[in-house]
Amino acid sequence: MGLPIVILILAVVGLILGSAFVLGAPILAVPFLLLLPGPFVMLGAARNQARQRRIKNFRRAAKAKKTDFRPADRETIV
Length: 78
Hints:
single chain, mainly alpha
């Protein structure tokens, strides 16, 4: 099972157990459930952005450099 599914199952079980002991627990838990994925989403976005930046820098570095040929060089180029 993937980690998000496990977290979701634990959250639902926590809501059920919490509501069994304290009736207001689901009301208090819902904001936490809404805030919980935020840091994970932001971390994934930051990793993706860093990966894209590395690819962009690699492509810039791999571009062909302009070369100035002397007239003698031009004679040998076919």
